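Final paragraph of the annual report: two paired records, presented back to back.
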Amino acid sequence: MKTTKLLYIAFITATILYSCKDNPVNPNDTPGRRDYVWVADTIKIPNNYSADLRVIWGSSPTDVWATSSGYHDKSISHFNGINWTSYGVDRMNVPSSIYGFSSNNVYVGTGGGGIWQFNGSNWTNVANITKDGHSDIVFDNMWGDSPVDIYATGAYGDTNGLANESVIVHLAKGKWEIINTDGLKGIVENLYKNNTDGKVYLRVIKYGGLVSIDSTNIYEYTQEKFNKIYNSGQDYIYANISLINKEVYFILEKKIVKRINNQFQTILNVDIPNFYYNIWGRNSQDIFLTMTDGLAHYNGSNIEYLLNFDKKRTQIFGSALFNNEVFFLVYESQTNLNLIYHGKLK
């Protein structure tokens, strides 16, 4: 399926600059440029009544993937550098996460505990995970340090039907194995290894249902134990983690911080309106920030809007970043459109 070019945006609509405080960035990092030319493509999914496209990954600007939990025949979308095409894979049940290492080594995690691998030509079901007799596992995310060291994370429903039974599986020595998650409750949404201290950090969203409020816990995982290092105490959007240049960054309310000597150190105070608690980046001076009304960028000195969304209730769900090109997965609830904003540096 070819997508429709929705709009063409030249650099860039907003010019207001925001000053930043407490920014101990790495002076060896190159400040990110902002002179992008933007195109937005639509991914057309029939009978799409929800934000189906949630995950995006790519090995290069001519090999970008996105997955949909909606219409089966359009559940896998791929960009070849020219067009987006969408298709379904027989027996692949609701692909909900994607990660890879090259154009011929891509993994997808699905509902029902499935893990699939793409070899450049075909998709193969390489694992079907069950835990405590449950096969109703949904893998919300995947990440790997190398092709032989990969994690898939998610959850299945508890006795109240809330997705609070945590699941982490790890590919090591050629075998997918379940990690003991005793002590964790909630969906394991993100898991990354930090290059500096070698620790694994993860974000777990716990649903309260009618009994308590939703919350987010952030843990470090060392020596097969989970140590809680942060609790949001309120709605999960106030805490997040991101991997930038092999370093884990924590988003704690309006602060972007790193973990140094077992302490949180503030990198940036995002003391501006409309920050939506999610970031992606190439280095400490080249960070993209999700806003409720667009996309902003931090270059080590200030924050500037790159995109302004004219539709309300527009949300950025993911990104794929390369040296001179960027892709952002965007959903417009008012128009029910899944969009890929593709930016190229001039």
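The closing record of the year follows.
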Amino acid sequence: MNTGLLHPLKIGASPPLPLGVVVDPDRAAAGPLAAFLDRHHLATAVCATLKETREVLTRAESMGADQPPVGVVFIDSGLAPTPDPVVDLLRAHPWIAVVVIAAYGNVQAAVSLLRAGAVDYLVRPFVDAELTATIDRALQHSAVRSENAGLRNRLSLRSRARRLIGHDPRMHTVYELVDAVAAGRSTVLMTGESGTGKSLIAREIHDRSPRRSGPFVELSCGSIPETLLESELFGHVKGAFTGAHADKVGRFLAADKGTIFLDEINSSSPGMQLKLLRVLQERRFEPVGSSTTIEVDVRVLLATNQPLEPLVQSGAFRQDLYYRINVVGIDVPPLRERAADIPVLARAFLAQQSAELGRPFVGFTDDALRALTAYPFPGNVRELQNVVERAVVVCRGSTLSESDLPAHIARPVSPRPAADAAGWAPQRLELALRAHERDVLEKTLRANNWSRQKTAADLGINRTTLYKKMRTLGLNTPDRLAG
């Protein structure tokens, strides 16, 4: 990249120099303005294109701490014939102040650009006093925006204690990976059972990244019918298929300059996997029914609720896509494998409910915490959150007791008598856990008269996950209740 720096960007200086960027394809025309900014003690850069400008601004952001620098960008009107370039630049870097420079005045263009967010519209030749006043006003404007962005960043960092909770060593590994990958652009693949908090981790990565001011778009591939998934991801044009009465913006375009999180990627079809591979490689796609190619600047985070390696070996998941998305892997452990975190999470959910309902709660009784810790939580953290919310609703005092918990947690089924040593045979832990999971699912289904909606609510999982588990474990609705 040739940014034509008049001197190195000293964003890391103390105090940091404000940034001044001149965007003009004519270097000779840009020179005098750049020299003027340099004399006024700005860290000055000259860019020929808006792409170079975005690279300079991104570099400046990365050299800061939790608050972006202060800066003004002077754009030649030839590069901003419409307000769109100004809007795009401010959306990606909301801390900057934009000044548009024109060779001759155009009232209509000036009004539209100012409405789009530019702080001033200057016509050559400049008067020094006028230019100095514009720079001062633009830097004051940028300083306010930078301070607001820094405040949002610090609040976002403080919110981490509310979102990612746990003292288990495996969760500390997750926290360290989040810290390591947040600032980059690498694709991240999270693996873990449903309800373990993968979407919270994705949101944490976004909020700690330079894209935090951009959109965060989330989509569960398993919740969208196969026939509609392509339209949801890439959008469609009017008339592309029956029911397409108007153009629709897809999730990838909605996430431009931000982050998209695709959950349950394991459920996508081979055809959809091929389309995703192209988007991940080229960051471009065509809406359904359109031949127009759209380019996006988006970071992709993905999650799967089952290991992808066996799916790759069986041919159900493309090997090239697997290697493309598995750049950085984060393994999220199930709650049953970190039972010591259950009391910590339960207290955090209780505090959240207390704040939302305006009811003060002291905490849990020892019996309630013992019951919660002993329960395997097949629905993981999401199930625990639902259990606490239910307990708060039925609790009549200020301390949640064992009687406020659901019956299958407060009074678990007595374990079967130990098998005779002679009749016992070793078995894999996976099979033993699956048998216990089947037992819990079947008892909950029977308690709810095989209502899958009520069962999913009690277990703290969605119905799609429940259907999959029932099929996997061979649990079928009785014929008298079928349909």
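The chain has 20 helices and 14 strands. This concludes the annual technical report; the extension proposal builds directly on these records.
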